[in-house]
């Protein structure tokens, strides 16, 4: 027995019970009809001329019904005689390569066949201008040559800063359409100033480029579209500020405020840009964002298949497993930190041989006197928190909360012969 096993052998593991969390389930049922109705504004239609080429900016995040949103927008433009094409708008994602960014779109289901429009992918940009402090502003060269530009994105809280405008249409314009150079420029001075620079850079681009409209969505706690809107260029900032407020109201959460150990089965870039959404975990990569539960120790056990070895976010946890380290693609992971300038999430947290040891390590170090009363919460990932597991020490809190319901009696965590909760 090694020293690690010796230190952890007597740490008790709590029994857990399944608990349901309830959230607002408002969603748009007939998306195509709703979006088409929002697009059918005289002011929007008047800006579109037959024969004009229109670049539609589509990003790398897994928006709900992204293919449908894009296809309906393409059809609307084509019906008015325009010639739309798709431009990947995802900053440095996809390995910061043209082929990689097109592959990301295809992975999300956005193909030339599924949306009936050509995909033109390039990392070339042009410089739009500079902010007063000298920060350069860029835009995709292909989009800049188009007769019109359309942006499709979801509005939601950012994971590293707070402000009236966070993640949404304006961020897509300033960073997504700016490609690798735009992403680097916007991150150059750090997240402390991001709430100022994202709208400033976007407004400069909006002023100098032929934007036609934006399609904006906000999703409910189950990642289903709760609202879709179409904004004209001069109303994007005002409308996005309002939709950002709504997104925070609809944001899913763990309703338990004080957690000794948060156990997360899987993280990945398909779950969040940070691997796991800090708005759910309460653990942020910078000091410029806040909210969520007070978590003493956090454990991540594995990576999603879709993240393809990109373990960005693992450093935000206190403990991880050898399984993650074995799957880690360092180049893909470290590229996130080099672009965002925030390298803490790309660190490798304290690594244990298996899940059981990682959980015991978190319990041992969570600073409570009686380990048998540990307040532990286990989630699959930060997108799937409708049903969670909680330790017995939290069941009274569950009973007292109107949005929580205990579903099962308590049971032991089921570690297999290799000391893992799953393989």
What does this structure look like?
This protein is α/β, with parallel strands linked by helices and about 425 residues long. The protein contains 16 helices and 16 strands. A 6-stranded mixed beta sheet has the order 11-10-14-15-1-16. Strands 4-3-2-7-8-9 form a 6-stranded mixed beta sheet, sandwiched between helices. Strands 5-6 form a two-stranded antiparallel ribbon. Strand 2 (about 55-60), helix 4 and strand 3 form a beta-alpha-beta unit. Helix 2 crosses helix 4 and helix 8 crosses helix 10 (about 195-210). The longest helix has 15 residues, at about 195-210. It is elongated and about 75 Å long.
Helix-strand layout with pairing:
Blueprint (H helix, E strand, L loop, with lengths): L2 H6 L7 E6 L9 H9 L2 H5 L6 E6 L7 H14 L3 E6 L9 H10 L4 H4 L2 E2 L5 E6 L5 E5 H5 L2 E7 L14 H8 L2 H9 L6 H15 L2 E9 L5 E7 L4 H15 L7 E10 L10 H4 L12 E10 L15 E3 H6 L2 H11 L9 E3 L2 H10 L11 E4 L7 E5 L3 H6 L3 E3 L17
Parallel strand pairs: 2-3, 2-7, 3-4, 7-8, 10-11, 10-14, 12-13
Antiparallel strand pairs: 1-15, 1-16, 5-6, 8-9, 14-15
Helix pairs in contact: 2-4, 8-10
């Amino acid at each position: 027995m090694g020293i690690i096993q010796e230190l952890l052998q007597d740490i008790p593991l709590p029994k857990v019970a399944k608990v349901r969390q309830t959230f607002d389930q408002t969603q748009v049922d007939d998306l195509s009809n709703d979006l088409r109705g929002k697009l059918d504004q005289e002011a929007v239609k008047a800006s579109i001329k037959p024969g004009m080429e229109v670049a539609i900016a589509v990003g790398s995040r897994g928006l709900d019904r992204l293919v449908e949103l894009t296809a309906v927008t393409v059809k609307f433009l084509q019906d008015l005689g325009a010639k739309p094409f798709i431009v990947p708008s995802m900053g440095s994602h996809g390995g910061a390569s043209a082929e990689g960014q097109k592959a990301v779109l295809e992975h999300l289901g956005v193909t030339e066949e599924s949306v009936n429009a050509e995909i033109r992918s390039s990392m070339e940009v042009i410089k739009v201008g500079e902010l007063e402090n000298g920060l350069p502003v860029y835009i995709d060269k292909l989009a800049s040559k188009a007769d019109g530009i359309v942006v499709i994105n979801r509005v939601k809280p950012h994971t590293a800063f707070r402000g009236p405008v966070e993640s949404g249409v304006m961020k897509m314009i300033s960073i997504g359409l700016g490609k690798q150079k735009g992403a680097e420029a916007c991150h150059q001075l750090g997240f402390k100033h991001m709430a100022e620079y994202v709208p400033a850079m976007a407004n400069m681009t909006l002023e100098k480029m032929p934007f036609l409209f934006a399609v904006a969505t906000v999703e409910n706690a189950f990642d289903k579209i709760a609202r879709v809107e179409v904004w004209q260029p001069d109303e994007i900032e005002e409308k996005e500020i309002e939709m950002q407020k709504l997104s925070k109201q609809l944001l899913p959460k763990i309703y338990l405020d004080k957690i000794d150990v948060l156990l997360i089965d899987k993280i990945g870039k398909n779950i969040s840009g940070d691997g796991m959404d800090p708005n759910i975990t309460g653990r942020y990569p910078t000091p410029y964002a806040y909210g969520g539960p007070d978590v003493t120790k956090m454990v991540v056990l594995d990576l999603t298949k879709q993240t393809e070895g990109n373990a960005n976010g693992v450093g935000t946890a206190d403990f991880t497993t050898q399984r993650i380290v074995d799957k880690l693609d360092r180049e893909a992971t470290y590229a996130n930190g080099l672009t965002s300038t925030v390298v803490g999430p790309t660190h490798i947290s304290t690594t244990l041989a298996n899940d059981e040891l990682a959980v015991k390590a978190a319990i041992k170090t969570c600073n409570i006197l009686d380990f048998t009363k540990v307040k532990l919460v286990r989630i699959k990932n930060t997108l799937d928190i409708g049903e969670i597991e909680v330790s017995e020490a939290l069941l009274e809190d569950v009973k007292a909360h109107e949005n929580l319901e205990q579903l099962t009696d308590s049971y032991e965590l089921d570690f297999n012969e290799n000391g893992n909760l799953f393989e």
